[in-house]
Design brief:
The chain is mainly beta and 127 residues long. It contains no helices and 10 strands. Strands 2, 4, 5, 8, 9 and 10 form a 6-stranded mixed β-sheet that branches. It is globular, with a radius of gyration of 14 Å. 34% of the residues are buried.
């Protein structure tokens, strides 16, 4: 069973950047689709970005297109979220998630396809 641990969160001013990392242990990520979700206070958890194990396009939420980039390093068993031009509305707890090996979802934005989750890291953006 894979375990996921996020890091890299913090407090940043609007317009700044942060790079989140998610390190996996107990299993390889090379055969898994990985994703980032976020949950702001009083709101439901929402999809941010995903990167498929099989390659292809990397789905992004409309609210982060052009600002956030998801990437993976299978050799380091890690996935990353580069966040640029941060806005106060990006404030949330960011969590990474992983599918079972070789699982292909028709919709990588759906939380139901991810049985493995990290504990989350707080990102706060001040205006």
């Amino acid at each position: 069973q894979v375990q996921l641990v996020e890091s890299g969160g913090g407090l940043v001013q609007a317009g700044g950047s942060l790079r989140l990392s998610c390190a996996a242990s107990g299993g390889t990520i090379s055969s898994r689709t990985l994703a980032w979700f976020r949950q702001a206070p009083g709101k439901e958890r929402e999809f941010v970005a995903a990167i498929r194990w099989s390659g292809g396009t990397t789905p992004l939420a409309d609210s982060v297109k052009g600002r956030f980039t998801i990437s993976r390093d299978n050799a380091k068993n890690s996935v990353y979220l580069q966040m640029n031009s941060l806005k106060p509305e990006d404030t949330a707890v960011y969590s990474c998630a992983a599918t079972k090996p070789y699982y292909t979802s028709s919709d990588p934005r759906s939380q139901g396809g991810y049985p493995y989750w990290g504990q989350g890291t707080q990102v706060s953006v001040s205006s």
